[in-house]
Write a structure and sequence with these properties.
Layout: E1 2-5, H1 6-11, H2 13-19, E2 25-29, E3 32-37, H3 40-64, H4 69-85
Length: about 90
């Protein structure tokens, strides 16, 4: 990943927009990375990957079974009751 100072990104914004079409750029402020500039295609790809990840986690929870609403409520009430008593 390329790196660029925030000042350079500000001064060369058009060039940076062109550059992120081929790879993301880590933007640094005072020598430390603070943000990443990337193409919309790369952003959408990452969002899709994240969506698939959470979808798989949800499917796994459904397949393995998870706590029912009434059990979750009882657990939460027990937890809240315990903390309130302290």
């Amino acid at each position: 990943m390329k790196e660029a100072a925030a000042t350079d990104v500000k001064n060369k914004f058009g060039q940076m927009l062109e550059a992120v079409m081929s790879e993301p750029i880590a933007i640094e402020k005072k020598g430390r990375p603070v943000a990443v500039m990337m193409s919309i295609a790369e952003y959408e790809r990452l969002v899709e990957i994240e969506g698939r990840y959470w979808g798989e986690k949800a499917l796994k929870a459904i397949q393995e079974g998870f706590v029912s609403d009434s059990k979750a409520k009882a657990l939460l009430e027990g937890k809240i009751g315990t903390e309130t008593a302290r």
